[in-house]
Amino acid sequence: MPEHRLTSVSTRNRNERELAAIFERNEVRDTFRISYLANRLVVPVYEDIKREFGLNRGEYLLLFCLSHIEELTSQDVADMTGRPRNSISRAVHRMLEDGYLTRSPDPADGRQALLRITYEGQELHRQIVPRFLVREEQILCALDSDERRQLDRLLAKLVGSNAP
Amino acid sequence: MPEHRLTSVSTRNRNERELAAIFERNEVRDTFRISYLANRLVVPVYEDIKREFGLNRGEYLLLFCLSHIEELTSQDVADMTGRPRNSISRAVHRMLEDGYLTRSPDPADGRQALLRITYEGQELHRQIVPRFLVREEQILCALDSDERRQLDRLLAKLVGSNAP
DNA sequence: GATTAATTGTTCCAAATGGAACAATTAATC
DNA sequence: GATTAATTGTTCCATTTGGAACAATTAATC
Questions:
Q1: Are the beta carbons of A15 and B64 separated by less than 8 Å?
Q2: Looking at residue B12, what is its pLDDT?
Q3: How far apart are alpha carbons B102 and B86 in whole angstroms?
């Protein structure tokens, strides 16, 4: 965000009250609340991942992409994650060294190399996913099952639309 | 934020198709989609703000907070935005120099200083808000007015709950 | 009321970040 | 097919970032 991040993790009453007021008053309520939610969902998990596995966000995103798509180039990952290519390059090297992925030159195009996740990488991913799920549940349990379905439908629609 | 960020801004068909697949396949769908949405809403606007007004995210967040709450300390802003205090400190100094806010020592507590937005700061905020709104509309127009109300209700519930 | 603990804002510094230039390769254009 | 343009992954470098230590001040504890 670096982010449009607003946490209410404050021990001081004043801020909690005032923060709530911001949610009601501000001019771009939906953007603001979605951004806030995203950070509440994701930030603490990334802090865990950093602490326990030594991966930063870019490295985990690389792992995540390769967990779902068998073979990708660095450029693919850059496109998908919106991160600059040099960051991906760094992440790839670190993850190669740690044995979480492999790289082989593309026989069809000498410029690029094909990345794949290793077994160790898959294992790591398997350890990390539950943390996101636990966190998701902590936040989304505020909704009943009907509301969860509503949310699912709305998100599908929003994400599916190809706005600019 | 650095971020759990996945954009579909790719000129290549392959990635767009594969990206869509990730949304369906992955294990933490709601977290993933909310995070994706947040970035789509916010990232391009922050890029504009950076380019046109020279403010980074932290600086704008400071402005945003002071636009809605008359008087805050640096620590207040740190609590509300979840950013480290030294970042806030830097942002405050830059914004002071630019004349977007004022600072006066708190007579009741010698440790802290009270920040307020200036007229110039309010003007700047007034110029920036519409950009968020335009972007919000670009994304949320995928929903009809009923669905918008649903979303509003769900967000209120999610944000209002005080999960850990 | 003296002593210890906690809080605020700042400075220092090592690490992360991302833009720009670059060589290697492939695609496009003439 | 030669020449120009575009693409990929990397290196370089200036800027940003955030943790830790710090002085100044206030609160808590004895």
A1: no
A2: 46
A3: 18
Separate counts of helices (H) and strands (E) for chain B: 7, 2
pTM above the 0.85 mark? Answer: yes
The answer to whether A132 faces chain B, any CB pair under 8 Å, is yes
Which of these, B19, B8, B2, lies nearest to A59 by C-alpha position? B2
Q: Where are the alpha helices (DSSP H) in chain A?
A: 13-25, 29-53, 57-68, 74-81, 85-97, 119-140, 145-160
At B79-129, the pLDDT tens digits run 988 899 999 999 999 999 999 999 999 999 999 999 999 999 999 999 999
| Whole-angstrom distance, CA of residue A137 vs CA of residue A128 | 15
Give the B window 40-69 contacts with A, CB below 8 Å. Answer: 40-43, 46, 57-58, 61, 64-65, 68-69
Interface residue of A11, A12, A26, A28 to substitute, partner B, most B CBs within 10 Å = A28
